[in-house]
Recover the amino acids of this structure.
């Protein structure tokens, strides 16, 4: 009878512990699956962000190239503008000479 009482007492202690252990294992399994799912979502998001970053870098490189081209074009236009201004000044002096009937003008292009 003593053995039955001990077995019964052990059963009363062990069975709830085994149930708790199984519940803990189930929660751990569920948590592990959630972690794996979250990690996969993070990997996917990271890949998408990397792709977007590459696109932005490419767009930035194109923008930089365009900016340099515009800067070069602007410098060329400034040179042409200066040349045209000089030519306009020369023509203004020549026109002044013709209007004043003089062959030598005090007007000098700048």
């Amino acid at each position: 009878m003593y053995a039955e009482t001990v077995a019964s007492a052990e059963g009363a202690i062990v069975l709830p512990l085994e149930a708790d252990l199984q519940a803990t294992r189930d929660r751990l399994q569920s948590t592990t699956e959630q972690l794996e799912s979250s990690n996969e979502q993070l990997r996917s998001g990271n890949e998408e962000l990397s792709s977007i970053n590459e696109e932005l870098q490419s767009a930035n490189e194109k923008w930089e190239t365009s900016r340099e081209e515009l800067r070069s074009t602007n410098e060329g236009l400034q040179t042409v503008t200066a040349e045209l201004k000089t030519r306009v000044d020369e023509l203004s002096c020549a026109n002044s000479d013709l209007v004043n009937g003089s062959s030598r003008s005090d007007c000098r292009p700048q």
